[in-house]
């Protein structure tokens, strides 16, 4: 008698497809973030060609280990219920915000007059990258809120529907 994983054929196929989709999502994220890493790209290209659940899972485990070893954790697709396309668009926006935030922070005396929120300990940011990461995280959170509230459709360019301000008399 052979060993059984206890999964139905349908569950095996679903798990296989989910693993392949994770690899494809990582490829999309790499393109969006303009990450050039031949080793990781090659592993992903080979991994998406896996023909069974076991080999797909082995590739995915190797890919995750490589990504973590290279401190590229931001490439691992989120397990969020937000659609992958929307997540990719949020990451694209965040990459732009990070780049612009670093330039802004490094301009003139800006780094001396931008302060952390009091709940975060206050004081100035240690580096432009620290400031950019905070701005990126805030942007991602706001974009998710706007997507979930249906104020943004999740597409690029970003166009958030804002309720008109009430007229004051």
Mind explaining what this structure looks like?
This protein is mainly alpha-helical and about 170 residues long. The chain has helices at about 10-30, 40-45, 55-70, 85-105, 110-115, 130-150. It has two domains: about 10-75; about 85-150. The chain is about 60% helix and about 0% strand. It starts with 8 loop residues before the first helix and ends in a 21-residue tail after the last helix. The model has no long low-confidence stretch (mean pLDDT about 85).
Features:
58% helix, 6 helices, 169 residues, mainly alpha
List SSEs in N-to-C order: HHHHHH
- Chain oligomer state: single chain
Provide the low-confidence segments as ranges.
Answer: none
Structural class: mainly alpha
- Estimate the mean pLDDT confidence: 87
Q: How would the blueprint of this fold be written?
A:
Layout lengths: L8 H24 L5 H10 L5 H17 L14 H22 L4 H4 L14 H21 L21
Helix pairs in contact: 1-2, 1-3, 1-4, 2-3, 4-6
Q: Could you provide a short overview of the structure?
A:
With 169 residues, the protein is mostly helical. 58% of the residues lie in helices and 0% in strands.
